[in-house]
Amino acid sequence: MSQTPRILFLLPYPLGKAPSQRFRVEQLLPLLDAAGIRYTLRPFMSMATWEVLYRQGSLLRKAWGIAGSFVRRKITVLFEAPKYDYIFIHREAAPLGPPVFEWLLAKVLRKKIIFDFDDAIWIPNTSAENRIAAWLKAHWKTRCICRWSYKAAGGNDFLCDYARRSGAPQVVRMPTVVDTQNRYNRLKTHHPGKPVVGWTGSHSTLKYLDGLLPLLRQLQETLDFTFLVIADKKPELPLKDWIYVPWDPTTEITDLLRMDIGIMPLTADRWSEGKCGFKLIQYLVLGIPAVASPVGVNSRIIEEGVNGYLADDPQAWQAALHKLLSDATLRARLGAAGREKIVRDYSVLAVRDTFLSLFR
Question: What is the pLDDT of residues 289-307, one digit of tens each?
Fold first, then answer.
């Protein structure tokens, strides 16, 4: 192995597009630059394919784009990979099919695979009408990739435990983090007036709001507040005062700062156990106190009454939201404590040594 290691990153998405990839890989690359470590990024999906993937129709363009991505990945693995010391795979080398590329890397080319994942991706999370997609994704391959890896990096304890049970020889807990020195270097200014309760997420996670909507509607009968949704798809909400802001990476911070209170409801299931609490991390780093379901890592991020509240039933949700909505001073105090927590435990600097240790 050369004195300075060379790393090949096999990524699923185009650069700058997917939150998981942006925050677990792309924003950590300056740490490698500072350490003098050389690397190459190879996304599976082209920008053109990404732009049509979630649109209705365009089946031929989607199929052609995915097929072309498989050809490019094959070339990357067979012709480029041999000259690298480490192969960093975020989630999977290809989104469909069995772990052929991972097998070639580990068993044929004998490469040291760093396998990074931040969701319970071994659990099918598709609806009954999408069984074909679930079959094509071959969720079982996560166990194989863990077993073939040199090191596995899980975003929380639940994921790390799975990696160990799957036979990963070395497992490292590496939470999803934010850059508190540059991008996330602002703090919410809390003031009296009409507060905003907010939620951010993708269209696939809008379902977690369903159980809270009756409660929010009831609260708006007695308290004057706006509900804000930041997402990639506009929902239909039965609330008298709510606004929708399309998710945009260029205005993401400014949009989040419109919130006075952030929420993260979840259902208590194995899929939710695998989540890394990124919504909470975004809220708290900006000084926005949060209310969340006590599921998985949420209970680790939220310190009850210090930076937010945990709520496991409608009564607890109502009490927590009522308390925060009624007291701007309390929101400011909990928000400041949240910022301190994220800087200490969930910042780029906090995981610097952990991330660099993956390549030793």
Answer: 999 999 999 999 999 999 9
pLDDT, residue 127, reads: 44
Q: Please report whether residue 336 resides in a domain.
A: yes
Task: For residues 31 and 88, state if they share a domain.
Answer: yes
| Burial category of 319 from C-beta neighbours within 10 Å (exposed 0-12, middle 13-18, buried 19 and up) | middle
With vertex at residue 17, the alpha carbon angle to CA 349 and CA 210, rounded to the nearest 5 degrees, is 95
- Tell me whether residue 321 is in a domain: yes
Q: Tell me: do 154 and 62 sit in the same domain.
A: yes
Residue 87, Cα to own-chain centre: how many angstroms? Answer: 21
- The verdict on residue 358 lying in a domain is no
- Asked whether residue 357 is assigned to any structural domain, the reply reads no
Q: Name the nearest CA neighbour of 347 among 338, 360, 335.
A: 338
pLDDT tens for 161-203 read: 999 999 999 999 999 999 999 999 999 999 888 999 999 998 8
Q: Write the CATH number for 61.
A: 3.40.50
Number of domains observed in the structure of the chain: 2
Whole-model pTM over 0.90 = yes
Q: 337: closest CA among 305, 299, 311, 315?
A: 305
Both 237 and 121 in one domain: the answer is no
Catalogue the E-assigned strands of the chain.
6-11, 38-43, 86-90, 112-117, 151-154, 171-173, 196-200, 226-231, 242-246, 261-264, 290-292, 308-310
Query: One-letter amino acid identity for 37?
Result: I
How many whole angstroms separate alpha carbon 347 and alpha carbon 198?
Answer: 22
pLDDT digits (tens, 9 = 90+) for 199-242: 999 888 999 999 999 999 999 999 999 999 999 999 999 999 99
247, amino acid identity:
W
Residue 160, amino acid: C
